Amino acid sequence: KESFFLNEYALSEFGVENVTDCSQLKNYCNAAPLVRAACPVTCGCDIPLGEAFDVGASGGCPSACLKGSGRWNAQMANRQCEDVAQATLANDERWQMWGVQFSEGLDSASAGYEEVFDSACSSHGGNCTRMFIELGCGFIPVALSVFSDLDGDPCTGNWLGDVIEATWKPLAPICPVTCNCLNQPDLTIDTGLAACPASCKTTTTSTTETMTMTTSTTSSKTTTSAPASATETTTSAAGP
């Protein structure tokens, strides 16, 4: 029954014929909540870099996808603690698709909050999709400023705060430096899954150990040099 349902739906909505499994609908994950609900794994509801941008239950992704996801943790374990370059993101099809979904999601959420959203993308002539795509990780401080009244945070996926329900993809996995993961490597999304790559903890630990060793070495040198200075002072005083 499910296969028949998906086949009929794909044909009527997207003109896709003979759908036998979810892999054939991957390019339509952001086209309709029903696709994400029927194909959550294919649409990446349970991984930080999946196709689906709207990963909330209201957007079609089952709520269980963001609870104890082994696939999410596995992907985070392999990411570097560094921002993806702006040029790389601008040319990335997934990032471009997320930009479209961000703009559409913002339009849907703006009812009653026009004063907050009207100027959200003014720097790019009101084109939110273009702003998202072109700024890359530089989009985050802009979003934090625009959504400050809502206490939203794109780094953790709670983009529009608690006032407006919008569980969109967190950007910390892609932009950990901009999201301050080096100083807060244990940052999580609302369901408790890691927002920062696991490597940020290692980087933070290594940096702390290096600073400690440097401080210790400097302190040791200062202590060692003190008697020599005293000796030199005594010799100088006793000279002609």
Ends apart, CA distance between termini: 107 Å
The major pleated sheet works out as: none
Derived from helix and strand composition plus strand pairing, the structural class reads mainly alpha
Shape: globular
Oligomer: single chain
Please report the number of helical segments.
9
Count every beta strand, where a strand is a DSSP E run of 2 or more residues. 0
Task: Please give the radius of gyration in angstroms.
Answer: 25 Å
Parts with pLDDT < 50 across at least 5 consecutive residues = 206-240
Q: H/E order of the elements?
A: HHHHHHHHH
Describe the protein in words:
This protein is mainly alpha-helical. The chain has helices spanning 2-14, 33-38, 70-77, 86-90, 93-109, 114-117, 128-135, 139-146, 199-238. The longest helix is centred in the last third of the chain and has 40 residues, at 199-238. Mean pLDDT is 80; it is low at 206-240.
